[in-house]
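Can anyone check this?
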Amino acid sequence: MKPTRVLLTAASTLFVSQVMAGEAVFYITEDGASMRDVAVSVDGQKQLIGKTGFVSFDINSGAHKVELSKFGEWLGDFEFNTDSGDQNAEIQVDVLGGEALEDVLVYTPGQDETPALGQISGYLQSEETGGAVTGASISLVGTDLAVVTDEDGFFSFELPRGNYDVAIAHPNYGQQTVSGVRVMANVNTGVNLTLGMSGNGVIEEVVAVGSYIPSTATAQERDSSAVLDSIGSEQMARFGDSSAASALKRVAGVAVAGGQFAIIRGMAGRYISSTLNGSLMPSTDPMRRDVPLDLFPSSVLGGIDIQKSFTPDLPGDSTGGAIRMTTKGMPEFTGGKASVKLGMNSRTTFSDVNSYEGGGTDFLGVDDGTREQPSYADSFTDGGYNVPTFITTDERIKLTQSFDHQYGVQQVQAKPDRGFAVSYGHVAEGNDATHGVYGAFSYGDEWTARHDAQVNDLSEVGTYERTKRNIDLAGYFYYGIENADLLLESKTVLLRKTDDTTKVSQIVDEGKDQELKSTLLQWVERQYLGQQFSGTHYFNLLGDDTVQWRAGIAQTSRYEPDRRSYTYGRATGTNNDFAFQGTVERRYSDLTETTVDLGSDITSEIMLNDLMLKAKAGFSYTTKSRDVELARYANRTVNGNAVDATASLDDIFSDANVDDGVVTFTGTTASTDSYNADEDTVALYASGELDMDTLSVLAGLRYESISQELRYPNSADSSNTLDESYVLPALSANWRATEETQLRASITQTISRPGITERSESIQYDPETDKPMTGNPDLEISDITNLDLRGEYYFSEEESVTVALFYKDVTNPIERSVVDGDGSAATGYTYNNVPSAELSGLEMDFRINALETDLWSGFVSGNFAYVDSNVDLSGSEAERLEGTSSRELQGQSKYLGNLQFGIDELSTGQSLTLLVNYFDDRIYATSRGELAPIMEDGRTTFDIVYRYDVSETLAVKAKVANITDEAVTYSRDGKAIESYYVGTDFNASVEYQF
């Protein structure tokens, strides 16, 4: 219901002429509410604040003396100056503890570079029914600005300062005009009326009802006590971001690896904390401790804050940054939205791609049991771990018969991408409280593939094709109740993401003098299910006090049933048929992690003479419980005289061969494959921020205690624990040099603790490379010292330029490194502490509204980051194994950049946005000995997003992503060792609001 920017500009131009030259307007509040019966005296002229909350005076140039009192009791006095008779003044006075604190803004009408905005909102009620008047036209006289009341009778405008005449029209209730409604910067003026069928309306109230706070991401960053970058839901919609992962890569200094995992300021997962509505996130990936951000669709997200400097209220491992995601909250109005989406890929859609036979509910992203571990195999072998020593031939045949022997790859046509989303919110205004309900559901089905994929590394040369079908489901439900003293909320979130993968490769292994054809069939279901309750309570004890509490339980899972892999081969240079290489492995893994999170924060804003003290303290308790079950099975050696090894695997494992015992299966699960883990974290913190007008100083401490225990049901001797506690100090300052300029600086201490996976001896497999990953139970906690400096200049609530410098010194960093072994035992990775690491960098960020006319508006925004790091490996196992004494942090790009160009054609409601994203080369994986690390080569992507608001209820959107389709490449010493193309994506959607 907000007017577009061009209408704001037009309104600003028109109403500037209506504002009196030489006028002083006063708005006085106490405890955030408008005060009445306050006597205001300006240069000897006295007036009383009425029920509107405003009072105005004619003034000349020069010094002006203001005195305030209420019922004869003195509240305060102050002075302000105007340089000419053309200047006006807006004076907001807040009465705290009986003392008046003024904020004076002097301006010249018509010379504002950006209009200062306030708000008019209101409610229309029927005199006959007592209910809401819906569908009434609310317009501002002399302009084209108009809105329609919603089903609850509400309306609102966001407007430049000035006086407005508000016209109301309804076919059943006639017409009414409310004259002289005052709009003041950052103030919400309420206009509530009762309309009768006779056409005679009664103005119930025209009153300044409270502060109007712009909700732009720029305003959030400006008012934060730390270095903060914010992404609002409107920005995600504008840029066509489908998930948190795609939105984060547009933030200064942030990259996203693998389309899932954030790297902030060159620091990957273990240096980043992630929260959802304030609660710590459990992980759905046994390979990593960070959260896969592609799991969180933009349809349920209200916004994302990336805080890059540590404050005591953050988790202690917020070194690179803290990703604070929030889901949608109290709806602003009653109504819903439905959308449908279709898309295609220039290389994948309608092409023949590899797949395999699955289950009947694959389209829902839920396996129907087709891939489930056979119950007989599970019970008879204890999940593949304990095969009876004296197993009979009949028992072995029965074990093999329990598996479904389907291994064939088939060609299918990749269908277009498709999906839909629906959401609805309802707001009910009661006498004592407002109740809000919001629900959302979305579904998506998409095919992706790697095309023309080539490998040329060491002794391996060849090609492969990897096809994925991605099924996404998201459900969200919100209920909230709010009044002047509290906000209570319940949020239920269900997120599912399923990847169905088929990979076929043909590689010449010169070392083995063989040509190998390998096949992988993989199904992975990832799920997040969470329930959160929270409350915010407002009261006055020490000052303006707020208590917030939260209680949440969340369960994440990663279910990977019946992962099948096998290889055929032949001698290099021959024309022989490819023959089965003897082993097919089937793996069944199930990770479930349950997290309970409790926390509370209390904040008090206390006036100390002319100073403001913001005291904050809190606690949190988080307990995690992880269960990992991993079962492996493989066939025993196939007798080449009994079967034709060149036949298909379906024929080799035919019912006849299985029933005759020609081919048989056995369990191959290792003793440490399955494990249980518990992690408890207790935190207490306290901080105080002293606001001395232009300078704010924050100091605080955070205490954390962590207890982590891993247990292996099949290997009791491998169990291990980690118990540590630490105190983390933080000191920061914010100097507001002018209204537009501020400088932030901080020095803080953080940690990086090993995750459960990194300390687990369970062998997991990298989903990208299938290389084994083994944890290290001897890992130690890393200590980090952080220095941050950022300068900010704000042109308006939407426009800004920032420049940041940062430095981090890490003691005992945890690094992924190659394993110590020979031959096949040298394959894969583990984790080790190394002596130290240093990281420094520069970030620049800007947004400018470059075009403002009656017909067009446009903006340009972007960011740039330079990051340099050095990891000291000297004297460590990593130095011996990698053959170097230093290198960069893994995943860190030296250069990162983003540009966004947007233009709106306002008369037709069309917008076009160009997005450019670049990341520089980064270490993908370390290598052994004298081999250089494997680098993921930097690349630039270009996207275009289009939107057309056909009407107030109908919108059409389109996006073209990865326009140039630049090859994805990995290299070593400048030589490409792997490359592939993913194609250009074309998506279109239609959105209807009701």
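Reply from J.R.: I decoded it. The radius of gyration is 32 Å.
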